[in-house]
Specification:
Radius of gyration of chain A: 20 Å
Helix content of chain A: 40-55%
Bound molecules: manganese (II) ion, zinc ion
Order of helices and strands of chain A: HHHHEEEEHEH
Oligomer: homodimer
Strand order of the largest sheet of chain A: 4-3-5
CATH architecture of the largest domain in chain A: Orthogonal Bundle
Number of strands of chain A: 5
Chain lengths: ~160, ~160
DNA sequence: CTCTTTAATGAGAATTATTCTCATTTGCTC
DNA sequence: GAGCAAATGAGAATAATTCTCATTAAAGAG
C-alpha cells in the first residue's frame, strides 16, 4: 500500500478514534489530489486504482465520515448530484440558471464577514461557498436576439 | 381552479412559449407561498391540494422548467436532497459540518460584490447563496469536553 | 364557439443513486 | 500473536428520479 497522505490528516482520523484502513486512505488521497469536484462514483473508480477491492458502500461511508470530521464537504452544482471537495478553502461560482454554465471567480470579501459571524454565532468557520445566480452573457444574447413567439426551438 | 398567482409570473411563462396549465400554476403557487424549502415530494403533496390530479413526473418537469426560467432554484442543505426556493432574494447559512445544524443570518455585503461581477463577467445576477462551513458552538463543546480516546461514543 | 394542432399530462415502468444487512476480515492494543 | 471491536465488500433493499406512451387539453385560427 503506497500512499502519500499527509500525516496530519491521518492523525486527525486516528485521534478521533477511527482506524486507518486502505479504503480510507484511498478515498482521502483521491480527494486530496482533487483538481475536480468528483462524485461518489468517480471517487470509487479512482479509489479502486489505489486499492482495487474498495467497495461502493465504503466510499459512501468514508465520505460521510470525512464530512463529519470537517475534512471534505459535498458541493452541489446545477442539478448534478453531490460532488466532494476539501473542506478548507473557499468556492466562488457564478451559475447560469438557464444553461447551467459555471464560472469560477476569485476575489471575495466574505472572509471578513466570516470573522464577524464567528464572534456573533460562536461557530468556528473553516470555509465558505459564495454563489451568484443569474443569466450568463450567452443566454442573455439568445433571449434578446429573438422574441419568444418566433423561437420554435425554445420549449423542448 | 382558484389561484392567486402573480400575473407577472404567468406572463413570463406565456411569453417564453409555455402553456398555462393547472399543475404549473399549482407548483408555482406552492413555491410562491414558500415559508420553507420544500423538496419535490412535499411540493407534489402541496400541489395536489390545489390540483388533485397533479402527477409526480409533472412536478419534476415543472421544477426543471421553472429553474431554467430563473423563477425557482434548487438549494442543497446538509445531505438532504434538493429543495426549491424562489430564485430571487439571497440565502445566508452557517452550516455545522459535524452535526448538520443550520443557522440563518441576514446582513450580507455580497450584493455589492454581485454588482462588480455583473460588470466583470456580463452575468445578469438575480440572487446569491452564501454559506459558511464550520463547527457550531455545541459541537465545539462536545469535542473539547473529552479527549478522543475516552469518547467511546464518538465513532458510531 | 368549434376545430386543429401540438405541448403537456399522469400512470406506471425503468433506471439510478444511496443505504442497509450480514458474514468475513483486519487494524489496533496488550 | 491473540482477542476484539470496528470496518469492510457483496449484494439486496430502498428511495429518488427519469422515461415511455397513450390520453388530454391549452392556445390560436377561423
Ligand atoms: Mn468550484
Ligand atoms: Mn435558507
Ligand atoms: Zn447561460
Ligand atoms: Zn454542530
Amino acid at each position: 500500500m503506497i500512499h502519500s497522505m499527509s500525516t496530519d490528516l491521518i492523525q486527525r482520523l486516528r485521534l478521533a478514534g477511527y482506524k486507518i484502513t486502505p479504503p480510507r486512505l484511498a478515498v482521502l488521497e483521491v480527494i486530496q489530489r482533487e483538481g475536480e469536484h468528483l462524485n461518489p462514483q468517480e471517487i470509487l473508480e479512482q479509489a479502486q486504482m489505489i486499492h482495487a477491492q474498495t467497495g461502493r458502500a465504503t466510499v459512501y461511508r468514508t465520505l460521510e465520515l470525512l464530512t463529519q470530521l470537517g475534512i471534505v464537504r459535498p458541493i452541489y452544482v446545477g442539478d448534478n448530484g453531490p460532488t466532494y471537495i476539501r473542506a478548507d478553502g473557499a468556492h466562488h461560482h457564478l451559475v447560469c440558471s438557464r444553461c447551467g454554465r459555471i464560472v469560477e471567480f476569485d476575489a471575495c470579501d466574505a472572509d471578513s464577514m466570516g470573522c464577524e459571524l464567528e464572534t456573533r454565532f460562536g461557530f468556528r468557520i473553516t470555509s465558505h461557498l459564495l454563489e451568484f445566480y443569474g443569466i450568463c452573457p450567452q443566454c442573455q444574447a439568445t433571449d434578446a436576439s429573438c422574441s419568444a413567439e418566433t423561437m420554435a426551438d425554445l420549449p423542448d
